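Sequence in, structure out. First:
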Amino acid sequence: MQNILLKHGEIEYEILPQDIKRIVVAFDVRRLYFKIPRNHTNITIECIKDYIDINYLYFKNRISMAKNIVEKYISQYGDNIMIFDRLIPKNAANIDMLSDILLQEASILTQELSSKMELKCPSLQISYAKGYIAKCLTKKNIVKIDYRNTLCTNADLSYVIVHELSHFVYPNHSKAFWNHVEKYYPQCKLATKSVRKKINDNIVLLGYFNLLPDKYKNITQFRLRKY
């Protein structure tokens, strides 16, 4: 089966045979994507149509929400991308540039916050992961900040860094850990929810502007560990 672009009702969808082991359904502001194993002979267009029928309203709403996210952003920033209070023309932006800006901003905040928290300042790395927003490697004294944080605010990034630095004290998500996070970021309960939402919004926006690494493409949401 070759790549096929079809439409079912108001929903446009594309079938993408790939060298994968299981079916993946993703979406962006344009359409649905059905990534299917090349050697999967039981999947037919009719099967996919039936699946869309069953989940039609859900898919329609998700695509509509993605479009609203993009439209709202464009109405606010026009042909620019806002990265930590810097307006950059979207035509001038690229993945390496955004990664560098994220690393610079995260480095400044990490130095300030680790000093405030009386911790040794860890090394920072920008990661391109699906399963976490940021990650603390306590034995190596490294904090990984995921690329999807690029369009977050300074306040969002501060929370993420406080969260990870707190793992150097409590390598778990115990009550003591959360008390420690709250000590240095009092609004942590609100930030926990808002950061996760913004990360998913960022995937939509970065995908629309063609600023996602290949491993993220056509994916708008991930199953994240508790954050």
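Second:
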Amino acid sequence: MSNMNTRATVTLQVNGQQAERTLQQFKSNALQQESAIAKAAAAGNKTDLKRLRRELADTKRQTFYLFT
């Protein structure tokens, strides 16, 4: 069985301009991913749809952990 771990390190200044920019970047990425998901769904592209949904979930997870 595969044992794969992922680790990310983020430097963030809480309640500062850098935190605001980071949050805006996550929001922008999420909106772009949602748009791409809609296009992939309309085109019936299941491979891209699955990948994009996974990327969106990762983005939301990162945002949740950073700002809770």
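Remark: The chain is about 70% helix and 0% strand.
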